[in-house]
Amino acid sequence: MGREPVYAGDMNAIDNELHVEFNANHRPKIITLCGSTRFTHAYQLQQLQLTLRGWIVLTVGVDVKKVDTFLGITAEDKDRLDELHLRKIDLSDAIMVLNVDGYVGESTQSEIVYALQHEKRIDWLEPFVSVSQTSFYRDGEVEGGQTLYRNISTREYMTMLCERYDIKDENG
After folding, report:
1. Which of 105, 109, 104 is nearest to 128 (CA)?
2. What is the pTM (predicted TM-score) of this model?
3. Most buried residue, 1, 7, 96, 161, by most Cβ within 10 Å?
């Protein structure tokens, strides 16, 4: 990708690049949080920090993993909620990937691909992603039924997604 990733630890860089001002005369920038709902604390912390900095923060409306048995959330409901989350990305200037300990699941990866396809800015909580060797690499080996993982930079991860899904970045 043409732009270096920005991490949550450098919120001033995020604010400066998108010219965020907590000002009643300007529409605040909008960001959607994306990541596994198992990281509730990361969602809460980033929502608080970004809101206090003047961002409108969109996030998951329902943690399906916690309520599906209690409320009877169906697979169809989950699909509709996933689609609604993509509409939140449509409304956003950027997404923040909550890749706690480098984790990016299948659902989050699809949101990143969607954001790339729609030319949204992508910011990251952490500077690396833990990927399985078999996810992207044809030469990835599985020994004794174990999937091998390695950490890669978020920049390399986005480049791999662009190649895999034939997404052109701003440089070509």
Report:
1. 104
2. 0.79
3. 96
